[in-house]
Predict the 3D structure of the following.
Amino acid sequence: MGEMKLARSHVERCLQDIWGVCRAKKDHDGDYPFSHGTAICFVRVERGDPIVVRVFAYAVTNVTRSGKLLAELNDINGRCRTVSVSWFGDTVIVEQVIHLKGLRRSRLAQACGAVGSVADDIGSMIAAVYGGETPLDSDDAEVNKEAS
């Protein structure tokens, strides 16, 4: 079995335990999607040397880049301890990268929680101040919370 298949198998097993599901479902890109409040989040196994696991979330979409927005994101990055926030192609993204050799269930759970929480925390504020919208609105977030 190749290193990439082993990596994906390990990530899937960790996600099954974290999410309490029998099977971690992949989307059409091979990512493992989940939601956290108003944010849409993903776990991705990225091939390369080294193989890494990227946990990322869309906090705000359709937001125009401006100096004030980038300054705000820079301030947020200064306060974040384990995640980074950036603007890319009209979207504010929150992410954390884990080296495959350091991947454990607890580390992946921390990354999913941190990325999702930060994206949810900043999404509504950024959308209100700088434009754009959160991937899920507040009503969708409440429905997802109640279903959990």
